[in-house]
Amino acid sequence: MGEVMLALKRAIVSLRRGRVWVHVLLPAIVAVVLTVGLSITLLDRLVAALVEQPPMSWVAAWGALWLAKLLAAFGGWLLILAASYVVAMLLAAIFVLPLLLDHVAAIDYPDLARLGEDSVVASTANSVAAALLFVVAWLVSLPLWLIPGAALLLPLLLMGWLNRRTFAYDALAAHATPAEWRQLRRQHAGALLALGVGMALLAHLPLVGLLAPAFAALAYVHYGLEALRRLRDGALT
N or C: which end of the chain has fewer CB within 10 A? Predict the structure, then answer.
C-alpha cells in the first residue's frame, strides 16, 4: 500500500496550490446543490416507494413497519448521496481531471512523455458506462442490505469500484500506451481498488466528503503517473 499512501501524500501537497482548489471546488459545489435539491423534492417520495419494495416490504409484512420505514429512510438518503456523488464524479472525470492532469503532469512529472491517446470521447464514454453500471449494481444489491453490515459495506465497495473504473483510466489515457495501461491495470489492480475504497470512505465524511470526487481524481493522477514512471524506468534498466 506504499504507492497508495504516496499518491495521497502528493495529492495533499498539490492542494497547497491555489489553482488546484479552483478545480476541486466545482464538483463539491454541484454536489451540495444537488443533494439539497433532491432531499427537498424527492426524499419523502423515495421513502414511500422503498417501503413498498423488497426487502423493506418483507420487514413490514413481518410486523416491523417502523424498521421498514427506518430502512427506507436510510436507503433514500443513500440513493440521494449516491446520485449526487455520481454526478460530481462525472464532472470531476470529464471536466476537472483533464485540467488537474495537465497541471500536475507539467509540475510533478515533466519527464513523462505523453504516448497515449488523449480522447475526450473515449474518456467520457468510460465514465458514463461506469456510472450506469454503478447504478445497476446499486439497485441489484438492495435486497442484500438486510444482511448485517451489508448496508455499510456494499456502498463502499461499489463506490470504490466506480472510482477505480473511472479515474484510473482517465488519469493514464493521455500518457500510457494501450499496452502500458493493460500492464499497469493488471499489476496494480488491488492498489487501484484500495485507493477507490479509501476515496469512498472520504465521501461519507461530513463536509470533507464533498471534495471526494475531485480529490479522488487528483490522487489517481498522482498514482497513475508515478506508476507509469516506474514502469518505464524499469523497462530502461
Answer: C
The burial class, CB within 10 Å (0-12 / 13-18 / 19+), for 204 is: middle
Per-residue pLDDT of the chain (237 residues; tens, 9 = 90+): 789 999 999 999 999 988 888 888 888 787 778 777 877 777 778 777 777 777 677 777 777 777 777 777 777 777 777 777 788 888 888 889 999 999 999 999 999 999 987 677 888 888 889 988 988 887 788 777 667 777 778 888 999 999 999 999 999 999 999 999 999 999 999 999 999 999 999 887 766 777 888 999 999 999 999 999 999 988 655
* Residue 236: its H or E element: helix 212-236
pTM of the model: 0.84
Q: CA 68 → CA 47, 64, 137, 212, distances in Å?
A: 10, 6, 22, 31
Give CA–CA dist 17/99, Å, rounded: 14
Report how far residue 194's alpha carbon sits from residue 46's, in angstroms, rounded to the nearest whole number: 31
CB contact at 8 A, 46 and 74: no
Question: Can you tell me which residue has the cell 444489491?
Answer: 141
Half-sphere exposure of 90 (CA within 13 A, CB side): 16
For residues 197 and 200, give the distance between their C-alpha atoms in angstroms, rounded to a whole number. 5
Q: At 89, which amino acid appears?
A: M
Q: Which amino acid is at 184?
A: L
Q: Which amino acid is at 141?
A: S
